[in-house]
Amino acid sequence: MHRRTALSVSAAAFLAAAPLLTACGSDAHPGAAAVVGGRRIEVSSLQAQVEDVRAAQQASPQAATLIRETGDLSRQKLHDMIFDRVVDKVAEDNGVTASRGEIQQARGEFARQSGGEEQMAAVLLQQRGVAPGRIDDVARRAVLMNKIAEKLGATDTPEGQKKLTEAFSRASKDLRIDVNPRYGSWDNDKITLAAYSAPWVRQISKAPAAGA
Asked: Where are the domains of the chain?
């Protein structure tokens, strides 16, 4: 019997986990969409991810709908890029890593649940704005978040959710996240860009552990 954890490598995890910091303007960090832990996220890197998603959407039979439903794609992608660095920080703080084999296993599991690689890619593109070339990034995030939940003993209870959220909030504050004001500002307590709600942060996800 597997214990339920706050996060998992199941389909839900793929689709799902101080005051606001002063935003970085063009004078302080020219060309940066954000600065996280002293490391820049370049506007050019953000735009490249947006273009990858738009290209995949344009190739879909549902192109018009997909594009319409992801109108704020730049903000969504920037959130993902920042959140991945927060995940990395929490993982490092807790001695958690994700091997290549674990990433591929997680990807394979979701592909099976989705009905195959092609359907998995379609689901991630439609529901999370993930380009096909970024699926391994999503798998890595799911593996790390699942391991973090297990390491912290964050079961699927209010107390477990609180423990997990506190760990992510603490890491977020430690990273001193500055966001270019054109994209908004980062909320350390909600662990998200202001006015953007990501499913894995909102919950921080309530799926059963893989194999449960």
From this structure: 11-41+75-111+135-203
Look-up: residue for tokens 């359907």?
119
Give CA–CA dist 73/97, Å, rounded: 29
Burial class (CB in 10 A: 0-12, 13-18, 19+), 72: middle
pTM as predicted: 0.81
Compute φ and ψ for 211, nearest 5 degrees. Answer: 90, -5
- Residue 2 sits at the vertex; the CA angle it makes with 206 and 199, to the nearest 5 degrees, is 15
Give CA–CA dist 165/203, Å, rounded.
9
pLDDT the model gives residue 198: 64
Query: What are the CA-CA distances from residue 114 to residues 10, 111, 132, 141 (Å)?
Result: 10, 5, 14, 18
Q: Tell me what pLDDT residue 181 has.
A: 92
Distance CA 131, CA 14 (A): 13
Whether residue 82 has a cis bond before it, omega within 30° of 0: no
